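Researcher: Structure prediction, please.
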Amino acid sequence: MRSNLLKNTVLPLTIIIAGFVAVIGLSGFLDRNRPALPADYDDSDLTMNGSRLKGFALGFEGLMADWYWMRSLQYIGGKIISSNSDFVNIDDLSGLNPRLLYPLLQNATDLDPHFIAAYSYGAIVMPAIDKDKAIEIAQKGIANNPDEWRLYQYLGYIYWKIGHYDQAAETYERGAAIAGAPPFMRLMAASMQTEGGSRSTAREIFRQMLADSDDPLVRLTAERRLNELDSMDERDAIDKALSDFRERMGRCVNALSEIAPALLQVKLPAGNEFMVDRSGNLIDPTNAPYLLDKENCRVKLDAAHTGLPVK
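Model: Predicted structure follows.
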């Protein structure tokens, strides 16, 4: 009887206890000897196989594509938040090391080849990360949706952004030939061939993005770019007024308010006008005051308050 008790109860219990002790010891050893992971390690790497499920998702491909799409939005947002930066340069997001964005968008568009919003998002964001990948995602969208003129608009935008004006013109021309494409597409094709790098061309591109897109990120990018272009025009006019004043008076102004009355009479491009705050300070399109760099007698942005990129 005692032998059976030892065999059936005590011995198994001893083995279980010994197993727990071994597991605890092994866990401690692994914790102490865990290899250092790279700063850009992300558990999402372990599940980046969604595109392989196409055809095996029992009709849920669209739902899975939406998941990858939402994940891509959250991914970039999380990167920006975790950077703890007061200002994010939307022209260069490489510092955030968003290495999973392209795979996420690839999976979304593999599962749903007609997911226009995902292609649009990639075309707008990816140039700030990897220009070649940006072109690839836009070209993929066109291959899967050859009658969607907006995708030609975005691919033309990428080519324009990297200075490939001939390719941009050709892309806009192809898009202009699609039924339902707005006259803007043909105008852009012509502009790329004559003044691809001009501010007026840039302004028209971002105006159309703002008017045509329902994507919040695309609209935000367009608004920021238009503000930046407007500020460039304003700063050019202010610098000219400063130069004229110094040539006439033999000194720089003591404050921008000295030339404000004259500036308020200046006609800026696109029908814009200078703005002043309640204190009479000249302000940029994000309502931050312009500052005087008296040493160089030039205007500068208020880096602490402006919503514009400070270069």
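Model: The two ends are 87 Å apart (CA to CA).
Researcher: Thanks, that helps.
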